[in-house]
Sequence to fold (282 residues):
Amino acid sequence: MIKVDASKCLGCLSCSNVCPSQNITRLETSEKRSIHWKKCKEECDLCVEFCPAKALALVPFDEASEEPTVAFDLVPCKICCGRYATEPMLRRIESILPLNLQKDSTGLAWIWVCPACRRNIEADRATKQMVLERSRKRP
Amino acid sequence: MPVYVDISRCIGCRSCEVACQRVHGGKGHVNVHMAGDHASVPIFCHHCEEATCTMACFTGALYKDGERTAFDVEKCTGCGLCRLACPFGVVGTDKLAHKCDLCVGRETPTCILTCPANALSTDFELASRRARARAAMAVARGR
Fold:
């Protein structure tokens, strides 16, 4: 059986992806993500091994214990307000990356912007640069 | 050896997107963005020197292989941390992560071979050489 330390869980779904018997289920809406661990009798610890936060542990089967569920509100993008990730995941990325890489050249904290908006920003930046070059060519 | 883009040449035909999808079993890694009426910009993996996706990956599925940011699908758990750690939003996760591998096993990435406008290349100097040539031409014509 799997014990979950909810305070450490990132909500990344790694465990659910690696579970060979689909005992870890996910429910995702546009605003919330919840993960549910069914009580399993297997002595398999794949999910424990592949948890990036070390939030899981293999414990002896206990009939009386409840099945754990962890729920997260997804974080809205600073630009488009579309919800795209759980807060602990973004906090983890903030803690891993060196500080000088966490802001782009305009000082934007890009971690809190969703991937689609990041691509748009990159496209706009490249376009501006090209338009500028064009206008230099034809004064 | 990432793919360099000369945006002034891009015609927005999305051939690179299609070619990438064809080579990678339907999962493409190129996004052509239309910036209003001004330009079309294909967004690629930059194969960053200090690749933040490799820093975020806890299983070592993403790693630096020379200049290339390579990906080992066997090690991926689909946690999605790399997708959130990419400043350009070019790492996809669709159960498992997928990203540009510069068409490993092929001599030249398929997007470069496909581009009908010659906007893509692996040559960093090409775009600036073209820009210099255009400037010289303008001077020679007396404009």
